[in-house]
Design a protein that fits this description.
The structure is a homodimer.
Chain A: E1 4-9, H1 12-24, E2 30-34, E3 40-42, E4 45-47, H2 49-58, H3 76-83, H4 94-108, H5 113-123, E5 129-132, E6 139-144, E7 147-150, H6 151-157, E8 164-170, H7 179-186, E9 190-195, H8 200-208, H9 211-218, E10 224-227, E11 230-231, E12 234-235, H10 240-246, H11 253-259, E13 266-270, E14 283-287, H12 294-312
Parallel strand pairs in A: 1-2, 1-9, 2-5, 9-10, 10-13, 13-14
Antiparallel strand pairs in A: 3-4, 6-7, 6-8, 11-12
Chain lengths: ~325, ~325
């Protein structure tokens, strides 16, 4: 068996890189560990936005217009729920709902989240392995001047408007790594670790907050690479830049390198930020990291995979 | 306030009469107590087929083509659930699902079924009061030569094919009447009780199995009327005739009168069975009870309401 990469990822940006990697690598050369800090209970259902976005993207089922949910979706459930006076701030498509209902039912039956999602991914046509970083409950909590907000209250209900003064990951200190994550990290075939261009504070930090994950990354025997989520002093999408400003961090690729200090050996910098390369004291590759088209995804994936192989030597 | 009728009803046939009664009576002159023996847990959701059929019918939302579920329905949830390997033998439309999800959520929050369904009925445009006969769990169990079957396993999964040797109502002996049922039965304005032309064994018997219901009906101070579910020796719809044969009961309107012995003062016989009237020893009205059109529903409703007023004198 060939070497494989283990990707740590969150939402949309990370899923784009994962799709590129799935397209250019054999299925067995890619395993993906996904953030669970966004997961929450809603309408009695367990909802896992990042896992679902990753699986829908890799299965070719994602709604690329919205950036979340499924394509060819219908919205009858939501319309009737509104008529019934139910909570409608979190939009759930009819097809998307099937995954939430089935996942909740199987969790209540005692199956682990990683087992369920691995099965779901395979049923939905995903060829590589996708799993949650943890089977335990680990919830991102946003600290604001007005008090603490549950992640989806911040992200969806309040549309990221509240000013963040900090973040904490409730349950992280007691959370263990899911079995497929341990298997990947323990495997002699692990060839490298890739931190996707996801939001470092909202998507990657909850992964690193699992104590075993951080300590294993610190003691890694294989190269680890991060791909920049910041291009020219701005986030490609989402609130990363806004959060960095609120936390008093300079919005630059250099701050991301600093953020992952001790956990990475290489950094993929955007070509627009090429002049910054000389200030970065780890290995750097420069690449146009903006991923609008499928070809863009393939290009960034190739750069990252090649970078990983080079660092391994 | 004028006198009101309390209707005991189950599924489709009963809902047709209820719709007629809602059309010809002022809203405050009609209260409807619905069977809960068909209710079950499925996919982690509480599903109440008879309550929902009644409410959809009275709200003008019923799928009259199927005889169950909502009109203008979409089926994306079911399609995706099948892809995920979920249980798909019980068909749940996307809009229908909203009611199951919202009901389950509210039940888990501690609201009673009768409170929730009364709210749902009003939100969906139902003008009269509709409530479950009991807020407790009471489940119809079908006894067959091959063992016991849960009701929906018999009714939907096995399409009523297994031969019935008996029925029992699990939980009935401990079940109480829902508060609105007690209020209706205790009200000085109660003017009569109507047993709808629902399946006596599957839809009405679970209602009568609540000990307080049967004893209160036996001690009633107002007239009670049953409408025949049998026309010319056959059931209008559903397995009533098949069940009667299997239980060794003659398939005739007379058997229905016998079944309700002591609980009714009047019986509405179908005009096709008019010759049977002389063999029935309680008050009888003869009427074309087949309800295909809205006018049919109004006609049967008028006959029943007028019959009730006459018996009251």
């Amino acid at each position: 068996m060939s070497r494989f990469f283990l990707v740590l990822t969150g939402g949309i940006g990370g899923a784009k890189l994962c799709l590129g990697l799935q397209r250019i690598l054999p299925a067995e050369s890619l395993r993906i560990a996904v953030n669970v800090g966004d997961d929450f209970e809603h309408l009695g259902l367990r909802i896992c936005p990042d896992l679902d976005t990753t699986i829908y993207t890799l299965g070719g089922l994602a709604n690329t217009e919205f950036g979340w949910g499924r394509r060819d979706e219908t919205w009858t459930f939501m319309k009737v729920l509104e008529n019934l006076g139910g909570e409608s701030w979190f939009r759930l498509g009819d097809g998307d709902l099937a995954l939430h209902v089935e996942r909740t039912r199987r969790l209540l039956r005692g199956e682990t989240l990683s087992y369920i999602m691995s099965d779901v991914a395979s049923r939905l046509g995903v060829r590589c392995e996708v799993f949650p970083v943890s089977d335990d409950i680990l919830s991102t909590v946003v600290v604001t001047a007005g008090g603490e907000l549950e992640f989806q209250d911040y992200f969806v209900r309040c549309r990221c408007v509240p000013v963040i003064s900090g973040l904490r990951f409730r349950g992280a200190e007691r959370a263990g790594l899911a079995e497929p994550v341990v298997a990947a990290l323990d495997s002699p075939d692990l060839g490298g670790i890739i931190i996707a261009p996801s939001n470092p504070y909202l998507s990657i930090d909850p992964i690193l907050a699992v104590p075993q994950m951080r300590s294993r990354l610190e003691r890694r025997q294989v190269p680890a690479i991060a791909v920049t989520p910041i291009i020219g002093g701005a986030a490609v999408k989402g609130p990363a830049a806004k959060i960095m400003k609120e936390l008093g961090i300079e919005v630059s690729a250099g701050s991301i390198v600093e953020h992952y200090r001790g956990l990475i050996d290489g950094f993929v910098l955007d070509s627009r930020d090429a002049p910054l390369a000389e200030h970065i004291d780890i290995e750097v590759r420069i690449c146009d990291t903006l991923m609008n088209t499928l070809e863009d995804r393939d290009r960034v994936a190739r750069t990252v995979a090649e970078f990983g192989r080079q660092l391994r030597r």
